[in-house]
Amino acid sequence: MRNTNNHSSxxxxxxxxxxxASLDSRFNQTLRNVQGLLKGRSIPGKILLTRxxxxxxxxxxxxxxxxxIRSFSENDAGSSDRMxxxxxxxxxxxxxxxxxxxxxxxxxxxxxxxxxxxEVQKSTMGARxxxxxxxxxxxxxxxxxxxILEKLRELAWSGIPDYMRPGAxxxxxxxxxxNSDRREGVLRRKRLEYLDCVSQYYDIPDTxxxxxxxxxxxxxxxxxxxxxxxxxxxxQLQVQKSLERILYTWAIRHPASGYVQGINxxxxxxxxxxxxxxxxGGVDNWSISDLSPEKISxxxxxxxxxxxxxxxxxxxxxxxxxxxIQRLVFKLKELVRRIDEPxxxxxxxxxxxxxxxxxxxxxxxxxxxxxxxxxxxxxDTYLAEGDxxxxxxxxxFASFLLTIRFRSLISKNW
Length: 414
Prior knowledge:
Blueprint: H1 2-38, H2 59-63, H3 66-70, H4 74-78, H5 80-96, H6 102-142, H7 149-156, H8 165-172, H9 180-202, H10 211-223, H11 237-253, H12 263-275, H13 293-312, H14 323-339, H15 341-349, H16 354-364, H17 375-385, H18 389-413
């Protein structure tokens, strides 16, 4: 009986690992689709997404710089017709499979499962072969006396090794200085400054707050327990208190916007990444109470300053009426219309407005739309984009939307 239970447990674990590998593979495929879209940021012609079975960490895609990826060549423009034919042929051939018997469908399905399993195995082997090379590249860049940020951005776009992510994010956001001799002193000073802000603005009685500040603190207190509800770590009261302190202090220091729902989500990647320097294992097994007050304070300070740096380039996303987001939603609508007119027309016919779904995408930077374990990887690419992030979001959201649309088209023909 015990052997049966063990076998069942092992089978469940294999299924879980297979599901995660499939999610990771699809996520990396979407990022590669974004790379294809970025070749045509000026939209010089029809741009199509094609599916590829490359390993997620293919060396050639990692070693290209963002600048190289975005260059649009005449060959790319000339291949759009060929790409269209390939897509049409794939759809037509898939549609013809409907005429096959159920037995043939079952055989094909089994073959597909086997092929996917082989692809995952190949992907894993390829990832292992490239991991050490990537770590060496990051180590070389990060160990310099003065960090060359462009080289770091180039590497970070394709993902940062987990244990290097906290330091890399601080550098990419400009929170930590590139000069290693100054870094420790700057971080110490900024962390003390955050403590002073908490003491001045948060650790005071309500009698010293205005009515607006009291209402804002209450709204933050309501939103914190709702933040990433499917990850148990964020249900810990001490975690929610840290989140509350960061958000309220940021809001008081940024009166032009104050607190806006959605900003609470933006703190979570920073919180998890900076806590990973002190806690081991999976996020669901973490307990923030295991840390000293000093480590918690330093983590909060790092989250606060990195959130500030991130939102410095997107302030009008969270001011009254959120005009920055409205503008990006319009750009997304225009981009989709130009690269996939049929899906754009279909949405218009159904009366579906982009604002109805894309507003939340821009407001929360997709945190609520993808599995949380993928968020840090996505944010590696976000932060590597630097000041170009707002425009980049338009392209990555278009890729997500059209990737979903393409799969839907294939499944319907099947």
